[in-house]
Amino acid sequence: KGSKPHPHEGGADGVEAKGIAELPALHYREHLAKDLYYSMPITSVLFNGRSKFQSVQIFSTKHFGKVLVLDNKMQSAQSDECLYHESLVHPALLSHPHPEAVFIGGGGEGATLREVLRHKNVKRVVMVDIDQIAVKMCRDNLPEWNGGVYDDPRVEVIYDDAGKYLATSGERFDVVIMDISDPIEAGPGWVLYTKEFYQKLKRDSLREHGVLCTQSTACSVNMITEGFTVINQTLKKVFAHVCPYRIDIPSFGAPWGFHICSDNAEFLLSPDTPPGEIDELLEARLGADQIVKLKHYEGYAHRHMFSLSKYERLACEREKRLLSTDNPVFVE
């Protein structure tokens, strides 16, 4: 989910960074800001290579289990991927009265797909990811994330640009989930956060009662205005109803933000949705056999995620910038 690495940023290279003690030979470190980073020991390297689009690394680590790293940015960790993927998927699908057709932009680990397929009334899922190598490596090395999902007859996987597919396929969906990289200057994905993209998506790709969910970058105290607040303001210019939320993800080194959006408020979940109502919806949509497999999302977890703190609410209220093709805003 992360953005482009800063110069001299590590990976599994163990190169000593200026001004800090020498690190062990196998040590992953990642910059949270230009001069702020965290690091962790690697116990083994499962894959280390490059696709046409990015570097792809899969490690085993002491503290988080297996991890997926793309371009030196943590994408997913075995110990807490459930926090990200359950938060990304279930609020959006429960915000639609009867979601049958779902689009996933990105989602190479297969875990977003896994969570969507828990919903019994879903009949078709199209997952479009640009990087076939990354998807294959995840399928081969991270079965804990995606075991069996690619064999489900409801699934179609397409290796292409997600924005291009939505613009040219002519297909409409009940729920669109954008599980893509952050809006960075050097990457092609920033256009998928623009006002123009959201306007076209709403007009051409969403059915009646359609819901959009997108990951919305880090929202810690020191990073919330880099992307989260701008994405929030941009979505509010396109959709009548926008609900921001977030969850702390330890392997990302920061709380992580999301948005669900719709022009129909009747079914859209919010901070005011009673926990019991969430649990009843999960029971009806997933069934007991799937609810027991959830590790994070339920009624009280929903209330916690959607109840933004004072600094988060104020940061969103003060934001005036919009992300557009003429005036992009990039995450550092």
TrEMBL record:
Its EC number is 2.5.1.79. The active site is at D179. Keywords: Polyamine biosynthesis, Transferase. It is an enzyme of class 2 (transferase). GO terms for molecular function: thermospermine synthase activity. The keyword Transcription does not apply. It catalyses: S-adenosyl 3-(methylsulfanyl)propylamine + spermidine = thermospermine + S-methyl-5'-thioadenosine + H(+). GO terms for biological process: polyamine biosynthetic process. SUPFAM superfamilies: S-adenosyl-L-methionine-dependent methyltransferases. Belongs to the spermidine/spermine synthase family. This is thermospermine synthase. It comes from Vitrella brassicaformis.
